[in-house]
Write a structure and sequence with these properties.
By secondary structure, the protein is of the alpha/beta class. About 30% of the residues lie in helices and about 20% in strands.
Length: about 240
């Protein structure tokens, strides 16, 4: 696991942007994408650039259960607004939040089997979750329906009018699904991510109580942190 220390989130986002561009230039075809505030600046940089994804495939990590893709808080809508409408991919896949559970799990696993991910972008939750794999998720999990923890609901309620509007479930790639990516970039910015970063970079083995630690078993992981997120680790 390589840890890249940057001064600011802006510098970290620039580094992630450069790594994505480098991967594309080196022949990467399938990109695993994340939502949320962490990768937002990276997507802005991609939109501002001359990068061309028209021959590439994107596969997103997760989606809220119960939200149509046209809902303003859905991850489908987020990706369209932040990236896809400006830099279209040849094909883009996001879990279908209104599909029946087993049918959606089978559909998404088939997509992942057809399009193995070359480069996966990840954020990390304050409780160590990656995608919506909450603490206690099995290390060998594939795409599944997740009950969101109160910690995650609290973190996401800023995007909704009131807490009761936040969906309680999501469809998410599993930890084993994420681990199949050839290369992984995880970004963590801000002091609120400091404990999660420490738990990840000091881990010596995968612990289901801290889902991100599954990454210690991956051969090609780059963690990008800013100064605030790195306050609890010795460089």
């Amino acid at each position: 696991m390589e840890v890249l220390y940057t001064k600011t989130a802006e510098e970290g986002s620039e580094k992630a942007y450069q790594l994505i561009r480098e991967a594309l230039d080196n022949g990467a075809k399938v990109f695993g994408l994340a939502t949320g505030s962490t990768p937002e600046r990276v997507y802005e940089k991609l939109v501002e650039s001359d990068v061309d994804f028209s021959e590439a495939i994107s596969v997103n990590l997760d989606e809220y259960v119960g939200l149509e893709g046209t809902h303003e808080q859905s991850y489908q809508y987020f990706m369209e607004q932040k990236l896809f409408n400006h830099k279209p991919f040849k094909e883009s896949f996001v879990p279908n939040g209104v599909n029946e559970e087993q049918a959606e799990i089978e559909r998404y696993e088939a997509i992942l089997a057809k399009y193995p991910i070359d480069l996966q972008i990840l954020g990390i939750g304050e409780n160590g979750h990656i995608a919506f794999n909450e603490p206690g998720t099995a290390l060998d999990s594939v795409t599944h329906k997740v009950e969101l923890t109160q910690s995650t609901i609290n973190a996401n309620k800023r995007n909704f009018e009131k807490e009761e509007d936040v969906p309680r479930y999501a469809y998410s790639m599993g930890l084993a699904s994420i681990m199949k990516a050839k290369k992984i970039i995880l970004m963590a910015f801000g002091e609120n991510k400091a404990q999660a970063v420490k738990d990840l970079v000091t881990a010596t083995k995968a612990d289901p109580a801290i889902p991100s630690t599954v990454l210690v078993n991956h051969p090609n992981v780059t963690v990008i942190v800013d100064e605030a997120a790195a306050t609890l680790i010795k460089k």
